[in-house]
Design a protein that fits this description.
InterPro entries: DUF4239. This protein is mainly alpha-helical and 253 residues long. It has nine helices and no strands.
Length: 253
């Protein structure tokens, strides 16, 4: 919801600057609107527009990379959990309580990620969630192998528990990297300057106004997309949880 609010604020600032520029066209002296003045202003605004385009492109690329990275981490976690479950199944029937604890812990994690409640998503790194993973590790450590095969399976299971724990925290840390607010403010100010210049020198007709509003909407939408991609676990644009649900469906079987 906060991303939609920011999108609305950016759109209002961009479209409002067009109105302000159009108003200034009526009050400024004529020589301020001459071809020489317009040429100088357009060159300066061209520089700002280039900087804004570069920053937008870099932010979209960075946010998309972060989104893909979290998606890949969650997919790796699902694969590690399934491998851990199958390793424990090979160890013997005495690991059934551990497999059940693993399934319950993973089900709780998937349920939290699938929730639209921001307060629940904010608790993905709470001590209770970490304790569940550590409990599974302690149960695995408590196994008493009877032969070399079981010793190898126990060692493999412990490595997989560590992999699950590491990738889980990696996903949490990547998800909690916010967009720097000063950069966002600077970008919005650049857009305001650009659209104010458009309003100052553009002719007043329905086509021009419609195109400028579409441009303002597109620029605001780009910032909204950056914010959404930068928060891959919540919002409108979020990572797919299908691999996690598919992994949960095969645990304990």
């Amino acid at each position: 919801m906060r991303h939609l609010f920011i999108f609305f604020i950016v759109f209002v600032c961009a479209s409002g600057s067009v109105v302000i520029g159009s108003y200034l066209r009526n009050v400024l002296p004529e020589h301020h609107l001459s071809e020489e003045s317009a040429g100088s202003v357009k060159l300066a605004i061209g520089l700002i527009a280039t900087m804004a385009a570069l920053v937008l492109g870099l932010l979209i690329s960075s946010a998309k990379g972060s989104f893909d990275s979290v998606s890949s981490v969650l997919l790796d976690t699902a694969a590690h959990v399934v491998r851990l479950d199958r390793t424990l199944a090979k160890y013997g029937p005495e690991t059934q309580p551990i497999r059940e604890a693993l399934r319950q812990s993973y089900a709780a994690a998937v349920e939290t990620l699938a929730s639209d409640d921001p307060s629940r998503l904010a608790r993905t790194d709470d001590p209770e969630a970490a304790r569940r993973v550590e409990d599974v590790r302690r149960l695995v450590e408590g196994l008493a192998p009877r032969d070399d095969v079981q010793r190898e399976l126990k060692t493999r299971a412990l490595l997989l528990v560590d992999e699950v724990f590491a990738t889980r925290w990696l996903a949490i840390l990547k998800e909690k990297v916010p967009l720097p607010m000063p950069l966002l403010v600077a970008l919005v100010l650049w857009l305001v300057a650009i659209f104010a210049t458009f309003g100052l020198y553009a002719p007043r007709n329905g086509t021009t106004i419609a195109v400028l509003l579409v441009c303002a909407l597109s620029s605001s939408g780009a910032i909204f997309l950056i914010l959404e991609l930068n928060s891959p676990l919540d919002g409108v644009v979020r990572v797919s949880l299908t691999p996690l649900r598919e992994a949960l469906a095969v645990l304990g079987k």
